[in-house]
């Protein structure tokens, strides 16, 4: 799970590189009418970002993004075609029309918005601090003390963040996320810091009272990416995203795949 932040950071860096290196000309993206006429919605999903996208026991791409895309395809009345994408090619694929839309931790940011358009946010990712109830504090900066020990995955991005922003705290390094969460549950450390939405599966394996520090370090808003000037498709997607939020479908799929409720829910907005 925490590996996710590292992958997310790498993905973001690569996407930025792709943004700089790939400057598509006129997009060949299909219009909403063309998608409806073809009977197929082509969605880019990154299978290396579990549980957003992953391979199941049949070696097929599954995950939150696939289920969410299936809902969109059902609402359109077309067949879903999942196209495997990687972090570097997500934006070029949708900008060039190889896929109709792209999912996969598509954090909205100004650099990406120069190349593609975004819908309303589908979900968030909370970069924050997980601790036990008995160690709870209200602000993560309160953990900058020499008697506080963070437990982190060796080589992950949060290690550097802690070194730079919580320099007085100690850091215990382990090799993987299951071990990190287990160490925290056993009291071998006081806290961990990462994208907390992706630790739910591991948290649920331990009978302890967890606490997420009230003040998050940061919150990312992830949306569906579409090609520039695909206004009719984007308009339809915004209506669909709102309806899936309003009817609780997004929350149901999130709980199914992440094992916990979305830590920072996306507020419903009828305006877009």
Q: SSE order in H/E notation?
A: HHEEEHEHEHEEHEHEHEEHH
Q: What's the helix count? A: 10
Give the helix proportion (percent range): 25-40%
Low-confidence stretches: 1-26
Name the average pLDDT. Answer: 88
Describe the structure.
Helices cover 36% and strands 23% of the residues. It is of the alpha/beta class and 272 residues long. Strand 7, helix 6 and strand 8 form a beta-alpha-beta unit. It is elongated. The N terminus is likely disordered.
Q: Could you outline the blueprint of secondary structure elements for this entry?
A:
Layout: H1 3-21, H2 32-38, E1 40-45, E2 54-55, E3 61-62, H3 64-76, E4 79-84, H4 90-95, E5 101-102, H5 110-113, E6 116-132, E7 149-153, H6 157-165, E8 170-174, H7 177-185, E9 191-195, H8 200-203, E10 210-212, E11 218-227, H9 231-246, H10 249-258
Parallel strand pairs: 1-4, 1-5, 7-8
Antiparallel strand pairs: 2-3, 6-9, 6-10, 6-11
Give the structure's gist in a few sentences.
Helix content is 36%, strand content 23%. It has 272 residues and is an alpha/beta fold.
Key terms:
four-stranded antiparallel sheet, single chain, disordered N terminus, alpha/beta, three-stranded parallel sheet, 272 residues
